[in-house]
Specification:
This protein is 53% helix and 21% strand. The protein contains 16 helices and 19 strands. The chain has helices at residues 2-45, 48-82, 85-96, 100-115, 148-166, 205-208, 281-300, 302-332, 347-368, 371-386, 391-407, 410-428, 438-456, 481-495, 523-532, 547-560; strands at residues 121-128, 136-140, 173-178, 181-189, 195-203, 220-225, 228-229, 232-233, 236-237, 252-256, 259-267, 272-280, 435-437, 460-466, 474-476, 498-507, 510-518, 565-572, 575-583. The strands form four sheets. Strands 6, 7, 8, 9, 10, 11 and 12 form a seven-stranded antiparallel beta sheet that branches. Helix 1 runs antiparallel to helix 8 (302-332) and helix 11 (391-407) runs antiparallel to helix 12 (410-428). The protein is flat and about 85 Å long.
């Protein structure tokens, strides 16, 4: 009976192979035959209207890409208003009577973080209304064609015009052209909606309208952004084309004097975009004859393509499937840890093979090390380690809030209470999450740093170097705050002042979070760090003041295993670095 069952399985396996080949051929041949029939019918019936509709759809589609990029550029410009960083810098400048260069450096740093990688803008300038020539910051994006010459041109030739134009905008976004240079302009307002500064962003027109370049080599095109004429002609940007006025033609396609005119009009909340493309009639007609040549080539290649398809299905689908089935049988027979050595030729089966090998190895590991008991212990240890709260930090925070209540106004107190609330909510973890996105973890760090900056004032300087591609990676909750606290307590406070650098980056399957602070470790401190970060370190025997970095190291080890954890070392002669290694590859997901 068992042998008969095995024979049925083998027959079923054999039939699946031929079914896969038949399906693959059918899925390729049927569309091919239908496509050939449609092409022949199209060519013979000379449906010029279909061609016009296709070109109109293409213009509309490419224009929609430009609209999306413009909308994204507008959305990016709103960050300067909504994030409040530039307002905070100005308030700190006014309240603390800092030097002009301090404000300029902060503004430039913010603009550099936000806009130097944004291809929509080649350069960005921000200035405060009180004294634009002194209280300002500017950056340029070299990858978008920006340069210092653009910024110099703005101040020498365009600033006064922009300044007058900004006075008419209120809280709206405006577009202004100065001798071919197009600027996006918006006012930064305070909490009373009174303008305090102006954000001036030079648009990278080539990028924003990159989707329209397909039409520039053979056709003339005119684009109006609001009242600004951003015309294109023969592939040259911003050259004036005589006679191309979109308002003279209806939306859609229109034949006029041997030319096909295609107009697209888009009206958004902040702007309107009116486009007109002029295409010679011969271009529309000639392109149809290319289908005949394509049809002939496709027929000639039909036979070798069928043979190639069969070989490809066999090599890249059937053989890898057989190897996976063989591996499954080995696991079923008790050969835990079995590895597939077949080198698949496709990315999908490479992924499946590697996943199978990883799962097989982990299955063997789990059985060898009594996985069920270890997982129960792991959850209990994680909950215990996450429950530690530093009472000294809470006490210091409350003391600062009380001191601010006696000496300053409500806004500062409100901000500190808000920061404390963020930290307390993170500590209580009502949603019971072990891991959170890095961008959420950075909110907890930002709340903690805000309180410490209020406590230390200008003695504490923080530099943030967070890679954009790491913000959505999952990290253990409250994994950064203890390390930042350690850097401030043992670096800045001990030295009287200092700088703490926070950075993130990815290499392969690992995410690295680093803090760097002033200080030099002596032999006694080195020995203490080695003791706290030892794999067998017992946190129950340590006072609460030394639990922070030990908890961080143990949590990473429990969650991800080797080589993840915390390492603290002397980076330079006067700098100490704490590095967290977190696995973010397939196994971490």
């Amino acid at each position: 009976m068992q042998e008969r069952g095995n024979e049925m399985k083998e027959k079923k396996k054999f039939s699946i192979q031929w079914r896969v080949i038949a399906i693959a051929l059918g899925c390729w041949m049927i569309p091919f035959v239908l496509m050939v029939g449609m092409m022949v019918h199209y060519i013979l019936s000379n449906q010029l209207g279909d061609r016009v509709d296709n070109m109109t759809d293409q213009v509309n589609f490419n224009m929609q890409t430009s609209v999306e990029r413009l909308n994204q550029a507008i959305e990016d410009s709103r960050d300067a208003s909504y994030e409040g960083e530039l307002r905070s810098v100005y308030e700190a400048f006014m309240n603390n009577h800092y030097k002009d260069y301090w404000l300029s450096g902060r503004v430039r740093g913010y603009l550099n973080t936000k806009y130097t990688k944004d291809k929509s803008f080649s350069s960005t300038v921000f200035w405060y209304l009180d004294d634009p020539e002194k209280l300002n910051g500017e950056v340029y994006n070299a990858s978008a064609g920006g340069s210092y010459h653009q910024i110099d041109t703005y101040w020498k030739e365009d600033h006064e015009t922009v300044k007058k134009y900004a006075e008419t905008l209120d809280t709206n976004i405006g577009f202004l052209e100065c001798d071919g240079r197009v600027y996006m302009i918006r006012n930064l307002v305070n909490r009373s909606f009174e303008p305090v500064g102006v954000l001036v962003m030079r648009m990278n027109i080539a990028y924003c309208f990159e989707g329209m370049r397909h039409f520039l080599e053979d056709f003339d095109m005119s684009i109006y952004l609001n009242e600004l004429n951003l015309e294109f002609s023969q592939g040259k940007e911003q050259t004036k084309t005589e006679g191309l006025h979109p308002e003279e033609y209806p939306k859609g396609s229109t034949w006029d004097g041997g030319y096909l005119y295609i107009r697209n009009l888009v009206k958004e909340n902040s702007y309107s975009l009116d486009t007109l493309v002029r295409i010679p009639k011969m271009v529309v007609m000639d392109s149809m004859y290319a289908y005949l040549r394509i049809l002939g080539v496709m027929i000639v290649l039909l036979v070798p393509l069928v043979v190639f398809l069969i070989l490809m299905v066999r090599r890249h689908i059937l053989q890898p499937t057989e190897q996976l089935m063989e591996g499954a049988r080995e696991i079923q027979e008790g050969n835990l840890g079995y590895q597939i050595t077949f080198e698949a030729g496709s990315r999908e089966f490479v992924y499946l093979t590697e996943s199978f090998n990883q799962m097989s190895s982990r299955l063997k590991y789990q059985f060898d090390h009594i996985y069920q008991e270890e997982m129960a212990l792991k959850d209990a240890r994680i909950m215990a380690l996450q429950s530690h709260i530093n009472p000294h930090f809470m006490n210091n925070t409350l003391e600062i809030i009380n001191w601010e209540a006696r000496l300053s106004g409500n806004m500062k107190i409100s901000k500190m209470i808000e920061s404390l609330s963020v930290l307390m909510n993170a500590a209580m973890d009502r949603k019971r999450r072990h891991v959170v996105p890095l961008k959420e973890e950075l909110q907890y760090v930002e709340a903690y740093l805000h309180i410490m900056k209020e406590r230390l004032g200008s003695k504490l300087t923080v530099e943030v170097e967070i890679a954009e591609d790491t913000l959505n990676e999952k990290v253990p909750r409250l994994i950064l705050q203890p390390v930042i606290e350690n850097a401030i307590e043992h670096g800045v406070i001990r030295s009287g002042s200092g700088t703490v650098v926070l950075r993130s980056y990815k290499k392969g399957d690992y995410l690295y979070l680093e803090t760097e602070n002033n200080g030099v470790m002596n032999e006694q401190e080195r020995a203490k760090v080695d003791r706290l970060l030892a794999p067998d370190y017992d946190t129950s025997k340590e006072s609460s003041g030394n639990l922070g970095i030990a908890n961080v190291n143990q949590r990473l080890g429990i969650l991800y295993g080797e080589p993840c954890g915390l390492a603290i070392f002397q980076e330079k002669d006067d700098r100490i670095c704490a590095r967290l290694t977190i696995f973010v590859g397939l196994r971490a997901q």
